[in-house]
Design a protein that fits this description.
Length: 234
């Protein structure tokens, strides 16, 4: 019998709600980048992955055209992942620092990684309606996993979380921590469910636009994951 999380993953993978994204992700998978011409691209929406009992939920932006859209796993096979996973390994959240494919043996500990948008968008910019189409997937992941801490990688992820929770005086800035509204009742598709996280932690996204310019450095990123550990104990 499938778990609720596995059922949700199946729904995500088969989603075709956004014609522009469907066309783009499939074109990229068909044409391919020269460096990966002999590889089979995933070319579908990318589900979240990690520890189903995680206390930390990490929310990114969307799959990279030749990263997750190729490998089928969040932050896998691109420069953002090459910056993210070594940091998670140093902090003890993963068993290895490399993330190249779904079969590379990577295991996350106490962490689940997902995204605001599930399909690779042109120019890495999903539209508002496209993000809205993915929003129920994010809500259901939170409902199922019940994380204590949410780490937002970038402002888009930050804004998406604040469409679900309320928090006073919130403004995105690297390292900022906000207390989310206490577990409360919310309506989804006419059904009530309990929402659980207590802390929202903000980080710049580990894209090359930030890491190559020095906007996000290794020490800055390491501090985020140390802070996440501290929040688990509060």
């Amino acid at each position: 019998m499938q778990s609720k999380l596995d059922q949700l993953k199946d729904e995500i993978i088969t989603c075709c709600k956004c014609p522009r994204l469907v066309e783009w992700r499939e074109e990229v998978a068909r044409v391919k980048r020269k460096a990966y011409k002999d590889q089979e691209y995933w070319g579908r929406p990318v589900p979240g992955f990690g520890d189903p009992k995680a206390r930390i939920l990490v929310v990114g932006l969307a799959p990279g055209a030749h990263g997750s859209n190729r490998t089928g796993r969040q932050f896998t096979g691109d420069a953002s992942g090459s910056f993210l996973y070594p940091a998670l390994h140093r902090a003890g959240f993963s068993n290895q620092a490399e993330a190249e494919s779904r079969s590379d043996g990577l295991i996350l500990k106490d962490m689940y990684i997902t995204a605001s948008g599930r399909c690779a968008p042109p120019d890495n910019k999903p539209g508002p309606e496209e993000l809205n189409n993915c929003q129920p997937f994010l809500e259901r992941e939170i409902e199922i996993i019940k994380p204590k801490v949410i780490v937002c990688l970038g402002k888009v992820a930050f804004d998406r979380i604040l469409k679900i929770f309320s928090a006073r005086g919130t403004k995105f800035s690297h390292g900022a921590v906000y207390a989310l509204s206490p577990p409360s009742l919310r309506l989804r598709s006419g059904q009530a469910f309990i929402i659980h996280p207590s802390s929202l932690l903000c980080s710049y996204h580990p894209s090359q636009q930030n890491t190559l310019t020095g906007k996000l450095t290794i020490p800055m990123f390491d501090e985020i994951w140390m802070r996440a550990k501290t929040l688990l104990e509060t």
